[in-house]
Design goal:
By secondary structure, the protein is α/β, with parallel strands linked by helices. The protein has eight helices and five strands, in the order αβαβαβαβαβααα. It has a three-stranded parallel beta sheet with strand order 3-4-5, with helices on both faces. The chain has a two-stranded parallel sheet with strand order 1-2. β1, α2 and β2 form a beta-alpha-beta unit. The protein is elongated.
Length: about 170
């Protein structure tokens, strides 16, 4: 409602199901947002939908490690999200996306409008997000770091050079 009141023609896709779906459907109906909001429900093809979006919005009030954020970053999409859970570890303000203080709906709407109005900035954030996820969070990198951690443990050290004692019990 905050966005549609300021700017006509912006379309929203809500992907996923959850306990708030019926509330969201009623609210969209009450606000007469049927033309602007499409609720797609659970989808297996999210990575095919993400590239057509201008901005990915994650308005979660609580979030662990967000698969949605990782998928969006891998698809070069800028993210606008509440700074909750692990999202601040993935999204670097003005580099890979925009973080907004939790529950600050007006600021969330302003951030979305900013990226819609500034497509070059949105493209840069998406490109940076892609680089970050592929440089720091790729499966290859995680496997290599896990291998290095095991090697350090087997040498009797942790990565912080603290001694670790491994007791092996054999029957």
């Amino acid at each position: 409602d905050l966005i549609s009141a300021q700017r006509k023609g912006i379309q929203f896709l809500i992907i996923g199901d959850g306990p708030d779906r019926s509330f969201l459907e009623r609210r969209c109906h009450q606000l007469k947002l049927g033309q602007e909001v499409q609720m797609l429900g659970f989808r297996r093809d999210v990575t095919e939908i993400l590239p057509i979006l201008n901005v990915v919005v994650i308005p979660s009030r609580s979030e662990g490690l967000s698969i949605t954020a990782l998928e969006a970053m891998a698809c070069r999409r800028p993210i606008v999200a509440f700074a909750t859970g692990a999202l601040p570890e993935l999204i670097f303000p003005c580099k890979t996306g925009i973080l907004v203080a939790k529950e600050q709906i007006r600021e969330l709407a302003q951030a979305i409008l900013f990226l819609v109005d500034n497509p070059r900035v949105a493209e840069r954030l998406g490109r940076n997000a892609y680089e970050h996820v592929h440089t720091h969070l790729s499966l290859k990198k995680m496997i290599r770091e896990t291998e290095l951690n095991y090697l350090e443990i087997m040498k009797g050290k942790t990565t912080k050079d603290k001694k670790v004692r491994l007791d092996l019990v054999a029957d």
